[in-house]
Amino acid sequence: MSDFDDLYSEQIIEHSKKPRNFGELPNANHHANGFNPLCGDKLVVGLVMDGAGVIQDVKFQGQGCAISKASASLMTGAVKGKTAAEAEHLFERFHDLVMGKLPEGEDLTDLGKLAVLAGVREYPARVKCASLAWHTLKAALESSTDGAVISTE
């Protein structure tokens, strides 16, 4: 399998073409806007958080490259039903994965389907594409309805 195939796996292409949890979340009580000026990816992450800090619902909308959209799609599925603390821990693990900070052979079971994005670490310019949704999620968790704007630059 080529490096290109490692980056654009069947699952990444599927999530890019048919993203899960894509669309507006009108009753969101937390949201943030993300922008990657390097490639023009733009997205909004909306969350419905309950009083106990659990992500009851999450959606994203916007435009971006295949890696950006697939990452956002996979992220929304991974964090739904999690507490803010659990989502932030997942963010850290995912960020370490795509940044190449995890030791070779590390058990990635806790990342579930997110592990398909491991190949991104071989393409530094694509790391920002894969992590945009995650940084936007983190900003949404830390804000409420003020619509914080984050950038990968």
Give the topology, please:
Blueprint: H1 3-7, H2 10-17, E1 30-36, E2 41-49, E3 55-63, H3 66-79, H4 84-98, H5 124-142, E4 148-151
Parallel strand pairs: 1-4
Antiparallel strand pairs: 1-2, 2-3
Helix pairs in contact: 2-3, 3-5, 4-5
Please describe the structure with a list of short key phrases separated by commas or semicolons.
disordered N terminus, Sufe protein. Chain: A, four-stranded mixed sheet, alpha+beta, 153 residues, 5 helices, 4 strands, globular
In short:
By secondary structure, the chain is α+β, with helices and mostly antiparallel strands. It contains five helices and four strands.
Explain what you see.
There is one protein chain. The chain has helices at residues 3-7, 10-17, 66-79, 84-98, 124-142; strands at residues 30-36, 41-49, 55-63, 148-151. The protein has 153 residues and is α+β, with helices and mostly antiparallel strands. The protein starts with a helix and ends with a strand. Helix content is 40%, strand content 19%. A 4-stranded mixed β-sheet has the order 3-2-1-4, covered by helices on one side. Residues 1-5 have low confidence and may be disordered. It has a single domain, classed as Sufe protein. Chain: A, CATH 3.90.1010. It is built from 5 helices and 4 strands. Helix 2 (10-17) packs across helix 3 (66-79) and helix 3 (66-79) runs parallel beside helix 5 (124-142).
